[in-house]
Automatic annotation (TrEMBL):
<dbReference type="GO" id="GO:0035595">
    <property type="term" value="F:N-acetylglucosaminylinositol deacetylase activity"/>
</dbReference>
<feature type="binding site">
    <location>
        <position position="15"/>
    </location>
    <ligand>
        <name>Zn(2+)</name>
    </ligand>
</feature>
<dbReference type="Pfam" id="PF02585">
    <property type="entry name" value="PIG-L"/>
</dbReference>
<keyword id="KW-0862">Zinc</keyword>
<feature type="compositionally biased region" description="Basic and acidic residues">
    <location>
        <begin position="270"/>
        <end position="284"/>
    </location>
</feature>
<feature type="binding site">
    <location>
        <position position="147"/>
    </location>
    <ligand>
        <name>Zn(2+)</name>
    </ligand>
</feature>
<protein>
    <recommendedName>
        <fullName>1D-myo-inositol 2-acetamido-2-deoxy-alpha-D-glucopyranoside deacetylase</fullName>
        <ecNumber>3.5.1.103</ecNumber>
    </recommendedName>
</protein>
<feature type="compositionally biased region" description="Low complexity">
    <location>
        <begin position="287"/>
        <end position="299"/>
    </location>
</feature>
<keyword id="KW-0378">Hydrolase</keyword>
<keyword id="KW-0479">Metal-binding</keyword>
<dbReference type="InterPro" id="IPR003737">
    <property type="entry name" value="GlcNAc_PI_deacetylase-related"/>
</dbReference>
<comment type="similarity">
    <text>Belongs to the MshB deacetylase family.</text>
</comment>
<feature type="binding site">
    <location>
        <position position="18"/>
    </location>
    <ligand>
        <name>Zn(2+)</name>
    </ligand>
</feature>
<dbReference type="InterPro" id="IPR017810">
    <property type="entry name" value="Mycothiol_biosynthesis_MshB"/>
</dbReference>
<dbReference type="InterPro" id="IPR024078">
    <property type="entry name" value="LmbE-like_dom_sf"/>
</dbReference>
<feature type="region of interest" description="Disordered">
    <location>
        <begin position="270"/>
        <end position="299"/>
    </location>
</feature>
<comment type="function">
    <text>Catalyzes the deacetylation of 1D-myo-inositol 2-acetamido-2-deoxy-alpha-D-glucopyranoside (GlcNAc-Ins) in the mycothiol biosynthesis pathway.</text>
</comment>
Amino acid sequence: MTDLPGRRLLLVHAHPDDESINNGVTMARYAAEGAHVTLVTCTLGERGEVIPPELAHLSGAALGAHRRGELADAMHALGVDDFRLLGGPGRFTDSGMMGLSDNDEPGCLWQADVDAAAALLVDVIREVRPQVLVTYDPNGGYGHPDHIQAHRIAMRAVELAAEAGCPVAKVYWNRVPRSHVEDAFARLRDELPGSPFEKAAEIEDVPGVVDDERITTAIHGEGTAHASAKAAAMRAHATQITVAEPYFVLSNDLAQPLLTTEYYELVRGERGDGDGDDGGRESDLFAGVAAAPGSGAAS
Ligand SMILES: [Zn+2]
């Protein structure tokens, strides 16, 4: 790959839909700004529960194929052209929720050798040379085996890439500040009777919630085209998500706020200048990163 733009962002996710829920605003913003945005999804989410009754017959590989189409539609909504499956489609399959016998299936992501899977991601890093990588925290945000593995693979790939002379300047984990999600849920409980949804989720259902002090970076999207793009991308994942802005439900039918500001914790690299109006948090994942010229071919 030659002549990539100066700013290059890599996101590592477990299933199609995770990228839109966690990072839709961020991906839309950087794509719109002309940065190169690369999404690596580790599985096709073959064990996801399907919401629409007319698609309920889909499972396993057929569901994976369908979700691949949903992912393509979501990326179109976000303006992202470079989206890939780790090791190619079907290389790693969905491991199911923690504790199920699915976790033991050969070929599922939970059974993958982390170093071998990370080597596949290193190939992407060497090609794209991202300055910024985004993934989950060590618990995968909420304990799903594929999210935990995506975290391990991403963090190991950063180490291996650095050893191979291809360092990633900044690594972020997806986070949500507790005060923000508490406010959003208070509003949700007030507004639930007027919404199409019957029950609200709990704050504990939101992945990656931490005390506010740990948030280093906020990508604000309220009222912007990026927020609309995020909602459209989430709608594209129709087997998994039902959207009625400013809320959405997963297959558990419990309403959650659709967050139009996305939050991050910088865990590797130098924190850049913050925004004085936002408690000193960075407002740009690339803050402090010198824009390098296009990657050229990986050497
Ligand atoms: Zn997921």
